[in-house]
Amino acid sequence: MSNNRNGQATLIMLVLIIVIFVGMVTFLLSLAESVSQSEYLNLYAHGLLASLLRTDTGSLDANCKTVGNLLSCSFLSPAYLCGGQTCGSLAEATVNDSLSQFADIKEGFRYLLIVESEGFSAVGPAGVERLEMGDPSLLDAPERIAATQHLSGVFGGQAYVLNARLLVSRID
Amino acid sequence: MKGQLGLMEYIFTAFFLIIIVIALLFFLTGFQITQSVGEKNQGSIDRALLLLKQVSSSPLFVKEQGVLDDAKLTAWLASDTCDQLEELFGPDWFLEVTVLDGTGVVVPCSQATYPQCNHWSLCTQEANALAFDLPVNVYRNVNTILTKDVIPATDLGILKVGVYVE
Amino acid sequence: MLSVYEAFKLVLGIVISLVILTVVIYFTTNYIGVQKDAKQAATLKAFLKSAGDVYTTGDAIGFAGLEGLISFDAHPPAGIVSSLGKAPVTFPLLLLPADDLFISANGLDLGWYDFRVVEATPRLRVLFNPVDTSDQTWDLVRGIVAAFPSTEFFDPKTTFGFCDGATVIENLCASTACEQDDFLFELINPSGVAFADCTATVPEGAVVIKVIPTCSLGSSDVFCLTPPNQVGLGNLYIGGEGPVIYKDPLDVVAAVIGGGKKDLYGNSGETLFEYKNRAMRTELLAATDVLKTRVLLLGPAYLQHATCQAAFNDILLALSNLSSLLETNEDYYADPSAAAAYVAALTDARQAHESLVEEGCDYA
Prior knowledge:
The complex is a heterotrimer of chains A (172), B (166) and C (364). Chain B is an alpha+beta fold and 166 residues long. Chain B has three helices and six strands. Chain B is 43% helix and 30% strand. With 364 residues, chain C is of the alpha/beta class. Chain C has three domains: 1-121, no CATH class; 123-260; 277-358.
């Protein structure tokens, strides 16, 4: 009887060892795949932010020429007119349109673009002053990629430096 | 009888041990093969990513980092493109660039359609490929032609680079 | 006294243990070999990835861990050779294999085109011996210094100094050897004192670059250049062998990184020098084709602009000349008249591009 139990215990132990081994291998393999994916996602996020900010809007006004200019204008003086529309509304429409085009091309991702002051937080009556365009739930997303770029120039005779940040996350 | 039963159990356990060891060996060998295949796939991924970065930064294609020159892209359509690209960057790869102009209409570029076009395709073939996309800008050298001036523009686009796999 | 049953158990146990032990030992020794190869492959892959990133971004990095694993075969198709075979390299790479490497990007700005290379070098001590001290020689020395890696804030270092007769002068920058920027600062107004031909024993890990009207045989770590002529060409002797014709500072740096040792194809420095020129020819042929067609595509838009039309015609002519020269002369770098024509064509193309940009007809 005790011999039966010993034999059975040995067999169970062997099976357990195999299961643990297979589990470890699967875990390690899945880890390897996610490393190269994150390199590509980083490249994608930085490429998206850089190219979005460089894109021309069609306006010849220096304050509205590129999407980067529009965002700076929108942060500093949202009521400024860019060819009949305020730069605030034009920035929002342009950015949302571009991000939705990329959402169509690359399914399964969501984006949030944030523009805020560089080096300090500008606080207004409604709290920290910043622009947000896209999916606000990304602020609480546990896993996301962030790309940042500075926006600098002169607006209304004053030099400025702002921080543009693009958050990218997979849709669960 | 009891002795024979004990013997049988002993042989049975030993037999099982050997089966498990052989199964482990098969599994480890299979794992090595899977690892090799995985390495090959990873090699293709690494190559595709390097090509993506090379195309988006090489003066053969760009005005500056991340800004493709539409006239250079169209120029590549003219010559023995694939042979030259293979000599420079290696064999079995392709690239496609599309301008996101919001029209939803794809107009393939050639010397005849330039500059009223928005899609470039180099060395594409019907084959399995591993490809990556990257948001880029496309510099339109001749966006607007005025009497006294030619006005360029920087549009938003997407670059796709892939390597052909078996 | 052992019963038959117990003896059977004992024997069976021993046999099974031996079988399992044999299989495990055999598999483990096999596995060690496979894992060693896998580790080598991983290191090599990491090196190629790092070098590729440096090429595309221009950001330099250090890399350690090659530990005598590799060599660089510059003969086409160029690639990195290890025990696993030859891994192709799809960008110009000037590699001197060592345990610790500094990987950086450098290149030649031709005006209308940028030819980029990746330099992967260990600790380098470069000693100049400018026996000829004309302005052209000092310009050449400055150009060569700029074509070496700039290792500030990184290791391993590339440092510069002089050799004057039997004396090695290295600690020119706050009692330490100068790196690129500091040495270039020292060379802004070089003193009028002529250097004597270097006769000092070349220190361990150092190379001497002489600029002297007549080059004689030297050891494998001495690179002798005749002063450049009016078009910037001169002769380069690599470890006493040669000469080859240098046209730009990168020719000299490629030869120095290659070294003056014997290799399968003759002289390692000469092999890397030829590799650099072959890579440049391939790239420039593609670049001239693309840019000529580009000019033809853009030309019609500027029909109303006479100055732009003229500027486009000039660059088209310059690029066509360069293209046909490279097409017909595979060894353009080896023939003095072809090399001179090549330098002249590059100068014409640069000037035509500058005019194009000045007239506002194209971007810089």
